[in-house]
Amino acid sequence: MSLSVPRASGYRGTSLGAFESVWSSKRCFSVSGMRKKELRAMSEEELGGIKVQQERLMRDIHETCEWGVGERWGSAPTETGMSRLSLSDTDKQARDWFVETTKTLGCTVTTDAMGNQFAIRPGLKDGPPTVAGSHLDTQPTGGRYDGILGVTAGIEMLRTLHDNDIKTTFPVGVVNWTNEEGARFPISMVSSGVWAGDIPISHAHDLKEVGTGTATMKSELQRIGYLGDIACSHEAMPLAAHFELHIEQGPILEAENRKIGIVQGVQAYKWFTVKVRGADCHTGTTSFSHRADALLAASKMIIYSHRAASRKGALASTGILTLKPGSTNTVPGSVDFSLDIRSPDDSIVEAVEADCKTAFSAIAAGEDIDNLNTSFTPSSKSCTVSWRTDSNSPATRFHPTCISCVSETTKALFGEKQEELTKAMTSGAGHDSVYTSKRVPTTMIFVPSRDGVSHNPVEFTKPEDCATGAQVLMGSVLRYDLLRGEGKV
Amino acid sequence: MSLSVPRASGYRGTSLGAFESVWSSKRCFSVSGMRKKELRAMSEEELGGIKVQQERLMRDIHETCEWGVGERWGSAPTETGMSRLSLSDTDKQARDWFVETTKTLGCTVTTDAMGNQFAIRPGLKDGPPTVAGSHLDTQPTGGRYDGILGVTAGIEMLRTLHDNDIKTTFPVGVVNWTNEEGARFPISMVSSGVWAGDIPISHAHDLKEVGTGTATMKSELQRIGYLGDIACSHEAMPLAAHFELHIEQGPILEAENRKIGIVQGVQAYKWFTVKVRGADCHTGTTSFSHRADALLAASKMIIYSHRAASRKGALASTGILTLKPGSTNTVPGSVDFSLDIRSPDDSIVEAVEADCKTAFSAIAAGEDIDNLNTSFTPSSKSCTVSWRTDSNSPATRFHPTCISCVSETTKALFGEKQEELTKAMTSGAGHDSVYTSKRVPTTMIFVPSRDGVSHNPVEFTKPEDCATGAQVLMGSVLRYDLLRGEGKV
Under the GO molecular function aspect, what terms does this record hold (chains A, B) (predicted)? Predict the structure, then answer.
């Protein structure tokens, strides 16, 4: 399905003003006769009748994506990627929109000392809000859905509640977490990390932007006016629960024709830099038996890590490899490569690490591991290998009540097709929900990503899938609020 | 054996003036009673009695290496590398020394339009000279022996002939070829290539220096005063034969305790850039079965090339590997790597290339080649691979008469130990002799390199080995002159 926004009436290549005129004429409410209704008084059928609007959601996504337009990949106006680095001028535009929009929907907007934005809609009772949270910043060559979908879907929830004048028992809201990507300031999920108490705020404030610039997170928060007065803390800004809608960033849902991933947790990962040292030598004058070829050894290690992870159902990946000296006729004496090991199970990550550590040492020493040296000319020289641990993120298990809220919502939505259209999944990537889950009940909802592509301009999720995700997000938040009202959580 | 120059008497850390004072007091002639002797009238025993002087040779090497001192690797004054890029100010100083020194030894010095310097010592008869040639330029992080030994040993030959007043039948001489390294102006052996008629002089003159500078070979030749009047051509400056003494740049002679490599030719090589294309994806969210991992495929290819070359007794090496996008949590979708295939036999290079081309395509397609996919999780996605040929240098066979001159000289020098102390070898690297061999009888002589290290500051050849090489170089040149005098060549 292509974009459902009307293209013939001024949408293609038009300004934001034209967007507005198109959409203003389309304001409509899908749930009539339910105004001023208390959520807790609704039947299951009435709850299911509260519907988000796909076209309004897509308008929010594409309208806000005018701030930070990235690389073009197709001819339609929305067929561009995004480049909206955290705390940039375009991020400020998106933040301003967040404030203005949620205020018109009856929310109080609070900004904390990390620039995290909390738009809270009052309930019948006071208390911490149940929120939908994600982030509006993107990778430098990112797409339109990662993070953005989660926040705009949260706002679509607010619009739907507002238009239908539905009163939740406790407050609900939307959170925009700052610098989730870690692309500009090089710690991912840094601001939910500060909120959770895992990262000291001084460390986060002092983070310098990558590249040649000299700005820090704090200086940029000040510059764009988003250094909030209240502390960035789960104590100063408590939440009742955190739900995050996100694109899968992987190919499984699409490949299996499923619509919703019911996320059970986030897999563990450890990141290493593996340093292989041999000896530079001339490619033409040095026989194989006299070489300590660091790249040949690294190649065997990369293959071995893939095999070792494969045997345990884990993942092992190398995304960075640098070598020295880097000349066609010089065998490299020095190779560094990244190794990223992941599994839903911490012990499996540890086992793959241990297996690789033993095997890499043997490979460096020239031993025949796993037949990788079969039919090689053995060398009288060997390499050395050392490991540096760069990150260690244990597995996260999301909260069963939150997961149940998602599951119940999909049952109501899909009926007997629920099992066919949903999948219990583990998130492969980290998200702000990893940090919120340390403090409050949390879970995530996945929707399909075309070809599993993410962090790329061509990242794409169908409008109908975005809307389904937003519907499940809203349903899950409302169900959690109902459980709170009933004193069940 | 350590450096045999006296260290207690002002050598360590002293200026060139101190060198001079040390060495002036050591001038002596090893062949007395042979003054004004004609070479052609000498007995084999007398010929063997003409000896180069190790200490004088080492003085020339270390004294001239004051121009272009590189990275220090030890505490002694000579324990530094070299950084004397072609046509730099320090190269000019070395060239000036070449002219002055060889003139005092009775030579006529000619500079051609590529700055190649020909120092010619007259013989009893006119005719093209039999020369010892190599180069005085170095890599930016090079050593003291590559190229420099060949030229200074040629000058030591001139000094020995001069001091003993020996008349050769035809002229003999020494050549300093310009920019052999290709380090500053990016074609190796470019000036012997122009001399041989293989490279147009306009192309060579227009070569721009690497890096950010704007100088060309011609502008730098003009600037330092070495743009000669005569054409750079084997016709304008004919040679009778070319002998080149060089460090092995490999570990074989040292490993086998041999002193002289009798070089039979230069192996063939082809250089390629192999481009592997898969798809970027997230390391955490993409299962192995959905990946097109360009680095994993490239790792298998690198290992395969090593095996394929090993099976044929050839060499295959990867010295450069670049990947995109280069992030720990992104599987690289794009890898380019260099592949350097060498063998003394052209047909073997072609066979390894053909084998790799077939296998790399199969590896990219995900087939199990050579058990490299054993116990992998197969992927439903595949990579593509393409090849670009960057260089193609067929095998060079040196001239049997020149090789015989070297062999006979080592027999006279080593006696019954000749077989034990020499080895027939193929040069793995290219040299100016590759180009001279296209026009005149040519061969090379190798001496051991410590640990096979070259193009590196720690490059080292023992003084006694340098002197042995110089002795064999001189003997070979003189034997060739004798054969010419006898009308045998």
Answer: hydrolase activity, acting on carbon-nitrogen (but not peptide) bonds, in linear amidines
